Amino acid sequence: MKRFCFLLLVIVLASFGCQKREITRPEAESESQQQKEQPETKAPEKVTERQITSQVESVETGGKVSKSTEEKEGIFKDIYFEFDKYDVHDTFKPILKSISAWLIKKTDVKLSIEGHCDTRGTTEYNLALGDRRTKAVKDYLVSLGVPSSRIETISYGSEKPVCTEQTEECWAKNRRAHFVVLHAEGK
Amino acid sequence: MKIAYKSLNTKFRAVLFYLPLLTFYFSLFAFADAKVYVDITSPTVKKMLIAIFDFEGPSGDKIAGIIRDDLSFTGLFTYVDKTSYVETLSQPFKPKNWTPLGIDAVVKGRVTEDKNLAVTVTLYDTFEGKGIFSKQYVAAKDLQRQLAHSIANDIYSSLTGKAAPFRTKIAFVGEDGGEKGIYIMDWDGHRMTKLGPKGNLALTPHWSSDGTRLIYSSERGRQWGIYLLNFRKMTEKRLFVSGGINMAGDFFPDGNSFIFSSSKDGTPDLYEFTIADNTVKKITSTHGIEVSPSISEDGKYIAFVSDRGGSPQIYVMLSDGGDARRITFEGSYNTSPHWSPSGNRIVFSGRRGSKNQIFTVKPDGSQLAQLTDVGNNEDPSFSPDGRYITFCSDRDMTKGVYIMRANGEGQKRITPRELKAFGPAWSPN
């Protein structure tokens, strides 16, 4: 009985030495195999690929909105932001006051506020930061009396920089809100 | 009839006791796998020495060259140059010509060309002294590269037991004359094609898990929308548009819905879009920014970026929005997370000093590893087998798409220097 148990134990322990997966360098362990076995032959494989062309047909759902834009200077100066921040600095509030006064009078147009970031930082987070900048400016204009429906916002993140040098000066120029006047179609 | 254990003969008792154990141990051998030459799961892999002849026939050298480049990039093979070969392509294979050089495998091939390209390839195992497979491939002449990649795929899977990525593609954003659009190329940078309608700004491409569709974000008429490109029909359809930003994220594994970030309700949050009925379900709702979502391959978890803690950091939550946990604690700017296919790593871009670098981390936030250290490195994502990472880098003139092994080795640019390229996404197949 003791010998029997001992034998079982030896077998069990010996099995620990064998890997489940055999990593090879094949050795002479496979003596039973033929030395010059024919390689496994398969039927010819036809290599094909789905055609990908540049021409893509657009299947739009919903109508397109036509807008003509007018880049305005004068009172519509760009306003700038600190790194990673979206709050409106006091320095720029006078500009926004002039813009709000103009908008309240000129009732047949809309204002589009573009939000931009400097080129540091990653694509998606920059788009979100630009978006928050536009909303901070919009909120301030609304607080000055401009109806919310007269203002649209669009963030471009760091995708439309005005300069691309890796300098503090250039980065500061890109951290901006830019104003564009929108006319409805036909005007 | 109950058997009282104690009444049994002791020997019989022993057999009863040990039998299940023995059955278990011996069953392990019954499931022994087919022979694997290179165990790619082993932490220290010894590279396999492989000899690849220039194939006989037209473009034989080009096809062999593509196979060599594919296998070399894996980091599992060392290609031995033909100047060391004792045997010629036409001589019959003899192990004794190879084993003294320590060469493990030999590839020979022959190309014939009439209407199509036909290539016959044999892979030999020098230590067993025989061929492992011999196969013929046929392709239209303009698919020469894909034919070579198919051969490399078969050699790789013969020797490692795993599927290879040599026929996969990478979608990315390319900038050409101020216009940013979606491009597709082979994983090694060849056969680049620009997709889609011109004149628009398009970003963040993501593949469906069957590789037949691509979603991306595009700004048209001063609005961000999410668009779906169907490769079967080569059609583009707008799925969602609103004020604010809308950024396409990963598809869910079943391909019926995807996650995206939108600021339609005020601040950027994460939403799930179901394609069949165009419904939108809100998943996060904070006063801060939530963007850049990545879904784990099993669909159970979402990694994303949030500034709810005061700075952009990586969080992991359940795919219904519950149980969000922050996983990055070093540095003040960690973004662009992407899950590995196995779910045991998240790759992301983190700012250190003034530059962005690629890191991997376990989903519980441990084992942070930095993979790059030169230039700005962003937009990382894994290959479908989890062994490689694609990302963009501005370390060498223009920002371009790069690939590397998932441990940081073998970093190289695959887009041309003249094209500004970023936002790469690796196809699933």
Q: Could you describe the 3D structure shown?
A:
- The complex is a heterodimer of chains A (187) and B (429).
- Chain A has a domain of 104 residues: OmpA-like domain (60s Ribosomal Protein L30, Chain: A), CATH 3.30.1330.
- In chain A, strands 4, 5, 6, 7 and 8 form a five-stranded mixed beta sheet that branches.
- Chain A is an alpha+beta fold.
- In chain A, helix 2 crosses helix 3.
- In chain A, 30% of the residues lie in helices and 20% in strands.
- With 429 residues, chain B is mostly beta strands.
- Chain B has two domains: 113 residues, 3-Layer(aba) Sandwich (Rossmann fold), CATH 3.40.50.10070; 258 residues, Neuraminidase (6 Propeller).
- In chain B, 12% of the residues lie in helices and 41% in strands.
- Chain B has a five-stranded mixed beta sheet with strand order 2-1-3-4-5, covered by helices on one side. In chain B, strands 8-7-6-29 form a four-stranded antiparallel beta sheet, with no helix packed on it.
- In chain B, helix 2 crosses helix 3.
- Chain B is globular, with a radius of gyration of 26 Å.
- Chain B starts with 9 loop residues before the first helix and ends with a strand.
- About 2% of the residues of chain B have low confidence.
- Chains A and B meet through helix 1, strand 1, strand 2, strand 3 and helix 3 of A and helix 1, strand 4, strand 5, helix 3 and strand 8 of B.
- Strand 2 of chain A pairs parallel with strand 5 of chain B, so a sheet runs across the interface.
